[in-house]
Automatic annotation (TrEMBL):
<dbReference type="InterPro" id="IPR013785">
    <property type="entry name" value="Aldolase_TIM"/>
</dbReference>
<keyword id="KW-0285">Flavoprotein</keyword>
<dbReference type="InterPro" id="IPR004136">
    <property type="entry name" value="NMO"/>
</dbReference>
<keyword id="KW-0288">FMN</keyword>
<keyword id="KW-0560">Oxidoreductase</keyword>
<dbReference type="GO" id="GO:0018580">
    <property type="term" value="F:nitronate monooxygenase activity"/>
</dbReference>
<keyword id="KW-0503">Monooxygenase</keyword>
<protein>
    <submittedName>
        <fullName>Nitronate monooxygenase</fullName>
    </submittedName>
</protein>
<dbReference type="Pfam" id="PF03060">
    <property type="entry name" value="NMO"/>
</dbReference>
Length: 368
């Protein structure tokens, strides 16, 4: 049995795999277009994407918008596949980046790190003000059925809009996590327990609006067998990120990728991010110094995240992640998923996708 396709509205991904957005600068046009060319959904991370722009210190907002527009265009030049953008609700310039993604004709906006309760407003306003019928799909990233219900209710009441899909991220995901720290090891919050009730919410919406509302499951998804297990629970697709980092097409420096290859399971740690959320990362000297309180407050010129307390935070997470992306892991750290210790070499996106197909087929129940 081969992998099924994933349909989100009028978009069809021949592989039911969404490459999770990874910032700062880990998933840009290079990785996103490679995934899209393999039939998956490639995702550009919008978080402080302007740090890669030489004029970012002059005008961070303009740099972010310019860089996002540029990366979407570059991806379009490399693929005719599906290109999405991940834009965190917590970003200070969330609204402007959403408008930029819509007007740059991103196929999908994935949005988490907060509840994107007004996301459809920006799509409606873009269509009205530009006198164009933008087709960007809007997909909230959530961690509970309650959050899915709240978003759906607000979108339908305020904008007459039903989410085009949901991404549910479980506690084994990398980066910032939508859970309290004690919930990360609580079995009741395992992805397998989160998916069915969210699928129930999606099915109720389908009955009301007359179209499919697929659920995409992410966080700790690593193999084709994982994909089969989650599809059997009612998910229509999966989101994967960690496995795509150690690929030739990933936009990060080779030293960042090598940190993934070298990581052991015991190297994975939970940090207390300046953003105010727990995060999963590869432990290193930078994190250890922060843990000991050795990092000093800094002068922030970006204020990229609304929830960041610039007066008290021990370091700038945007600059730390940018340093790591560029290979300087002494000045930053690498976010990762719980399965990073299973990565043993640098490969290609094509080889990852072929492996997922093979693993999926091999995991099929044996017929008597």
């Amino acid at each position: 049995m081969t992998l099924p396709s994933l349909k989100i509205g009028d978009l069809t991904a021949t592989m039911p795999v969404v490459q999770g957005g990874m910032g700062v600068g880990i998933s840009l046009s290079g990785l996103a277009s490679a995934v899209a060319n393999e039939g998956g959904i490639g995702v550009i991370a919008g978080a402080m994407i302007g740090l890669l722009d030489k004029d970012v210190t002059k005008d961070p907002l303009a740099a972010n918008m310019r860089a996002l527009r540029r990366e979407i265009q570059k991806a379009r030049e490399k693929t005719s596949g599906i290109i999405g953008v991940n834009i965190m609700v917590a970003l200070t310039h969330f609204t402007q980046l959403v408008r930029t993604a819509i007007e740059s004709r991103a196929d999908i906006i994935f949005s988490g790190a907060g509840l994107p309760t007004d996301l459809p407003k920006h799509l409606h306003e873009a269509c009205e003000q530009k006198k164009e019928d933008f087709k960007t799909k809007l997909v909230p990233i959530i961690s509970s059925a309650r959050a899915a219900s709240i978003i759906a209710r607000k979108w339908m009441r305020n904008f007459n809009y039903v989410p085009d899909a949901f991404v549910v991220e479980g506690p084994k995901a990398g980066g910032h996590l939508g859970f309290k720290e004690d919930e990360l090891t609580d079995a009741s919050f395992a992805l397998e327990n989160l998916v069915p009730p969210i699928v129930d919410v999606a099915r109720e919406l389908e009955d009301k609006c007359g179209r499919a509302v697929p659920v995409i499951a992410g966080g700790g998804v690593f193999t084709g067998a994982d994909i089969r297990r989650l599809l059997n629970l009612g998910a229509s697709g999966v989101q994967m990120a960690t496995r795509f980092v150690a690929t030739e097409e990933c936009d990060a420096d080779i030293r960042f990728k090598q940190a993934y290859v070298n990581a052991r399971p015991e190297d994975v740690t939970i940090i207390h991010s300046p953003v105010g959320m727990p995060g999963r990362a590869i432990d290193n000297s930078f994190i250890e110094a922060s843990r000991k309180g050795l990092k000093k407050p800094f002068r922030c010129i970006y204020h990229c995240v609304k929830t960041c307390n610039r007066e008290k935070t021990p370091y700038c997470i945007a600059l730390a992640l940018l340093s790591a992306m560029r290979g300087n892991l002494k000045a930053g750290f690498a976010f990762c998923g719980t399965n990073v210790g299973r990565i043993t070499s640098i490969t290609t996106v094509h080889e990852v996708m072929e492996s997922l197909r093979r693993e999926y087929e091999e995991s099929a129940p044996k017929q008597a």
